[in-house]
Design brief:
CATH architecture of the largest domain: Orthogonal Bundle
Largest sheet: none
Shape: globular
Radius of gyration: 17 Å
Helix content: 40-55%
CATH class of the largest domain: Mainly Alpha
Mean pLDDT: 86
């Protein structure tokens, strides 16, 4: 797996903003007709350009998260944070602030329920057994001092299904997970728990743990 650095991640986001900027302004919007604002129509208008063209929530580009099978409560919380501009990482500012600002609570709930009801993506075997093994150690046991990273399994569960407001990570794009871990570590995405838990994580451990998460199924893990 290609290992991202903070610089390369920022370059990727900047490039995406350039490539998708015109599409975002011209084509992605909330439908003006209130009668057309059912969840599937909203997905078609406002979400499918980035999160899966067939409205299934499975994005092709790792710049955009896979939403299929994601926990409904987590999606609702994130959309409300984005709508209020309380989530201010570079991705949020570039893509989601404008799209989410006009959504009502009812529409947010409908979108969350739509995506959470779509068939989830499961993990795949790793092509790098050593890296995945290191990632399993980080995921299940954390990292001791001096870096001290809290074990992921404690919140995200054995198969990384998450629960309620804890996101499902299984099946997610490796590079998207790496991007978010860089954001949390570097303070670009605010979440007190995550900022504290991964503040000292190294680039190597980010590469390892995301490699391992990529193998997890997210099945049969109702509580973390």
């Amino acid at each position: 797996m290609k290992k991202f650095t903070t610089h390369s991640l920022n370059v990727a986001v900047a490039l995406a903003c350039t490539v998708f900027g015109t599409v975002r302004a011209a084509e992605i919007s909330v439908p003006p007709d209130a009668s057309a604002r059912d969840a599937k129509t909203l997905v078609s208008f406002a979400c499918s350009k980035c999160h899966g063209t067939s409205t299934n929530g499975i994005s092709i580009s790792p710049l955009f998260p896979i939403l299929a099978g994601q926990n409904s409560i987590y999606i609702q919380e994130q959309l409300k944070l984005l709508r209020q501009h309380d989530r201010a990482d570079p991705h949020a500012r570039a893509f989601m602030w404008g799209i989410s600002h006009a959504l009502t609570d009812e529409q947010i709930q409908g979108l969350a329920e739509w995506f959470s009801s779509q068939p989830a993506v499961s993990g795949r075997p790793s092509n790098n057994a050593a890296l995945a093994a290191r990632g399993k150690e980080v995921y299940e046991n954390g990292v001791p001092e001096p870096h001290r990273v809290i074990k992921c399994i404690e919140c995200h569960g054995e198969t990384s299904a998450g629960t309620n407001n804890v996101p499902r990570l299984a099946g997610q794009h490796h590079d998207y997970l790496a991007l978010q871990l860089h954001y949390y570590r570097d303070g670009l995405r605010a979440n007190k728990l995550m900022n504290r838990n991964v503040k000292n994580i190294t680039d190597d451990d980010i590469a390892a743990v995301t490699e391992y998460i990529g193998t997890l199924s997210g099945a049969g893990d109702s509580s973390p």
